[in-house]
Amino acid sequence: MKLFHISDLHIGKKVNGFSMIEDQRYILTEIIQMIEEERPDVLLISGDVYDVKQPSAEAVALLDDFLKKLAKEHADTGMDTCIISGNHDSAERLAYASSIIDMSGIHISPVYDGKVSVFRKSDEYGEVYFYLLPFLRPADVRKYFPDEGINSYDDAIHTVVSDLNVDTSKRNVILSHQFVTGAKRSESEEVIVGGLDNISASNYDDFDYAALGHIHGPQKTGRDTVRYSGTPLKYSFSEEHDKKSVVEVDLLEKGNVSISLHELTPRHDMRVIRGRYDDLMNRENYKDTDTDDYVKIVLTDEEDIPSAIEKLRVVYPNIMQLEYDNKRTRTAQTIEGDAKVDEKSPQQLFEEFYELQNNQSMKDEQKEYVSSLIEKVWGD
Q1: Could you read off the pLDDT of 43-86 as tens digits, one per residue?
Q2: What sign does the dihedral 27-33-35-37 (CA atoms) show?
Q3: Which of 45, 88, 280, 282 has the fewest CB atoms found within 10 Å of its own CB?
Q4: How far is residue 43's CA from residue 70's CA, in Å, rounded to a whole number?
Q5: What is the pTM of this model?
C-alpha cells in the first residue's frame, strides 16, 4: 500500500505581513498533480490544516477546493484521505460535516471524546489500520481517564495510545500532531516554555509508521518510520536550507516498510541575501537569480543606507526583512553616565557617545559637521 504523508499546511498564514494564500494554492496544486502521477492509496494530512482556529473565508475556500480535488481522486482511483486536527486548528470546525465528507473518501478526526477514530483499508497483504489521533493536551485526556494521574503531555499520549489495544500482528499507521523529544524546531513554530509539550517517541513503538505533524522541518525522530513530513512551504528564514517534500511510505508485508521523498518546488523560495548595498543592486550580481523570492537582506555597509528597503524593492519586490551586520550592530556597548561630564566639551561628549553607539570613531567630515552645529547652537 502506497501512502503519501504531508502536514502543517497552515492555510491562510501570513509571513512577515505577506499573505501566503497564493503560494499555498500553487503548492496544493503541485501536490494534486503529484497524486495524479504517483497514484497513492492513502493521503495522510497530520494536522495544522489551517493557521488559525477561525480561518478567513479565503482560507476556507482554498481548503474546500483542495478537498474537492481529493474527493475526485477517490472517485477516479479509490484514494482515501485521512486528516487530523493540529494545535492551530479548531477540531470542531475542521470536523464539521465529516460524516458526510467521509462518503467522499475523506476521513477527518472528530473532536476527541475518549476514543480515537480508526480507518481500515485492505491490499494484497491484508488490512492496514489507520489511527487518527488529533492534537491533545493533558486536560483533553484527563477528563476521560481521571484515575490515570495525567500530569504531562507524555502521560496523556501514553494513556491514549495504551487504550487503543493495537494488534501488533497487523500493519498499523498512526497520524499524530505532537512534539517528540529531540525533534528540531524552526522559528515558525509555536513553542511551549520549558518543553512541557515533549512526548517520547516510544509512544509510537506499536506502529509500522507514525505520520507526524507539528514540527516544520522534515525529519525522522527515533527511527526512520517515526517521521515529520514538515511544511510544504517555508514559513521562516530558519528553514532556508530545508528541502520541502511529500513523504512516500510503501507498506508491503508486515515489517517491510520503505520511505522515499518527492521534492516540492515552491512558487517563491525563501532565502537570505548578504552583502553591501551597491553589490546587491549591481545587475551583474543578481541577473541569474530569482529576484521574486521572499528574501531577508542583511546589509554589511558600515553606514546606514537612506530609504534602503524602498530602494532594494526595485530589484527585490518581495523583501520581507532588512538587517545590518556591521561594527555598530555586532558589538553591543552600554552607554552609561560620565562622571567627568563637566570637564569635557560638547564636542568630546558627542564623539564619545557616537563611538559607544556605533562601535567606531567619527570621520573627520562628521566631526567638522558636529563642530559647526555646536558652534551655531552655543554661539547664539
Answers
A1: 999 999 999 999 999 999 999 999 999 999 999 999 999 999 99
A2: negative
A3: 282
A4: 9
A5: 0.85
